[in-house]
Amino acid sequence: MNVPVLARTLERAGLSTILVTNMPYWAEKVGVPRTLAVEFPFGHTLGQPRDISQQMRVIREALDVLENAQAPGAIVHSGEVWPIPQDKAIQSWQPEKPSPIIEHLAPRFREMLRQRRRPVT
């Protein structure tokens, strides 16, 4: 089960939820009840590894959104800033050379995305 579906299921059961994500566009598209958007590299949604103070700030911010969001589908953009430029952050966790499977699949992904953009007639 994906996170947005789980969030909606928990909400129907009376439990409030919040999604912390670096992909707020998709949260909006799938209808997550509340979202805190962070501009962090993938895999680091709550902050840098071992940076407990940053992680706690993000968690507190998410709880604040959970408590104060006024409307369903609310998306709040976090004020937290990743301490190094995004391109350098990506380089720090991306391998210099793609794995063989990614190298093989990348052109197919591009073609798949192009096909999705074409209008259906």
Please summarize what this structure is:
The protein is mostly helical and 121 residues long. Helix content is 50%, strand content 9%. It has one domain.
Describe what you observe in this structure:
- Strands 1-2-3 form a 3-stranded parallel sheet, with helices on both faces.
- 50% of the residues lie in helices and 9% in strands.
- It has one domain (3-117).
- The model has no long low-confidence stretch (mean pLDDT 84).
- Strand 2, helix 3 (52-68) and strand 3 form a beta-alpha-beta unit.
- The protein is built from 5 helices and 3 strands.
- The longest helix has 18 residues, at 100-117.
- The protein is mainly α and 121 residues long.
- It has helices at 3-12, 24-30, 52-68, 86-93, 100-117; strands at 19-21, 34-37, 74-77.
Q: Secondary-structure map with pairings?
A:
Layout: H1 3-12, E1 19-21, H2 24-30, E2 34-37, H3 52-68, E3 74-77, H4 86-93, H5 100-117
Parallel strand pairs: 1-2, 2-3
Keywords:
about 10% strand, 3-stranded parallel beta sheet, globular, 5 helices, mainly alpha, about 50% helix, 3 strands, about 120 residues
What does the overall shape look like?
Answer: globular
Structural class: mainly alpha
**Share of helical residues:** 40-55%
| Strand percentage | 5-15%
Note the total helix count: 5
Distance between the termini: 32 Å
Low-confidence residue ranges: none
N-to-C SSE string, H for helix and E for strand: HEHEHEHH
Total count of domains: 1
User: What do the pLDDT scores average to?
Assistant: 84
Described by strand count, sense and barrel closure, the largest sheet is:
3 strands, parallel
